[in-house]
Batch of 2 targets.
Target 1
Amino acid sequence: MKLNESIRKALNDQVVKEFYSAYLYRSMSSDMKAAGYKGYAHWLMKQYEEEMEHGEKIIAYIEDRDGTVDFGQIDAVTSRFDCPLKVAEAALAHEQYVSESIRTIFRAAREEGDIETEVFLQWFITEQIEEESSSTDVKNGFEAAGDCKGLRFMFDAQLGNR
Ligand code: MG
């Protein structure tokens, strides 16, 4: 069944948000590499790859529902970081924003009686629980390390195992 236009548009906007997320994590990875946090840079690269997959998943769904995808503008990343805790805080805030964005589409799908989109979005809702949880873990780790350079680098090494 063809997607309703308002749902197609909302999903399409989410595609752009997922690719922006990828772009954001890519830049954070680069910043952390420059600051000497190679483990966190690696963790953020994995996150970048996941966000690209999220975008692809939604594109495939729109296509499967006979919708067309508009490849709209992806915003520039304007924030620069040298502190890993600041990155972790910004990443968590971003994931909370993405979670709310997905909930909003889910509610709209429910209102439209679009059962297929509700089912499709369930995967993303579950994924966001994990994203927020892992981002919180990273934030807590750097918070606990505080100003101790040794502890920060130990935690960074741990993130490199992702
Ligand atoms: Mg995502």
Note: The pocket of magnesium ion is lined by residues 18, 21, 51, 54, 98 (CB under 6 Å).
Target 2
Amino acid sequence: MSQSPLIETINLTKHFDLGKQGGVRQVVHALDGISLQIAEQEILGLVGESGSGKSTYGKTLIGLHDKTAGEVRLRGETLPAHYHPRDFERHATSMQMIFQDPYSSLNPRMTVGEIIGEGLKLHTKASAAEVRDKVTGWLEQVGLQGEHAGRYPHEFSGGQRQRIGIARAMILEPEFVVCDEPISALDVSVQAQVINLLDDLKASMGLTMLFIAHDLSMVRYVSDRMAVMYLGMVVELGPANDVFFSPKHPYTEVLVASNPEPDPITERSRASTTISGEIPSPVNVGAGCRFASRCPKVMDICRSTTPELNPLKDDSIRQVACHLF
Ligand code: SF4
């Protein structure tokens, strides 16, 4: 990545302490030392199985979870671990999140207009009339109608609710948006509509995004680069097409192979490896490669030494954390 990053995390770490069991402290290693950069107007896709830490990364990055260690920088400025009320408004309007579940993320007791306009009321000095006008404008921009402002979330379909969630995030004109599995709770028939809407907004607003999903084909379509997470660590990073069509890390290989490609010609040209077993528990993980228990290419060193994410010798744009490279 040649441009200076809009947003970056340096060794971002999030552990959840579960207390002692049998005299041993149980610590969930949800994120361990994630260092990623996202350039202005770039979409970074983040993929991995459930339990890999993708959503925790998005939430910790944006400040919805306190971090255990590490830094988040926006335009080179380190964001505080806990926001002072004076700083909160500045950062709340810079970074927003679109949530996975459009059913639980909208307050059922608030009208759609109140939901979409709430951020403007809280974080800006906009008058009631300005808030109303902007809400109407954003309802129309996401494909709904101004008169929908007076209705309640239960009166809308899943796809429409996700459009309301998108309008709520975008009305503050953020520089950076985390999209956390924004289509996985939706019917297949409306998924493409929501992706097209995000694509249009990215083009018209010059947005920078972290796009979290488990559907690799979708992430390849949407993203400029793709990062692959496994058990709280990034194991591969590179241009989205390169990672998808020529995966290097054994985990990415099996992840790609288990993700059907809609085009039968490209589907035939891909690897046919399959993944076995479930992602191990993230509690008290020890040294060594975290994929070792499932890796078809495991070696002795893998069980004792944790591989670092390093550039490939012949393609420095790509990075892989594996002793094979
Ligand atoms: Fe497999 Fe070893 Fe590479 Fe881990 S480091 S992915 S166990 S070969």
Note: The first strand starts at residue 5 and ends at 21.
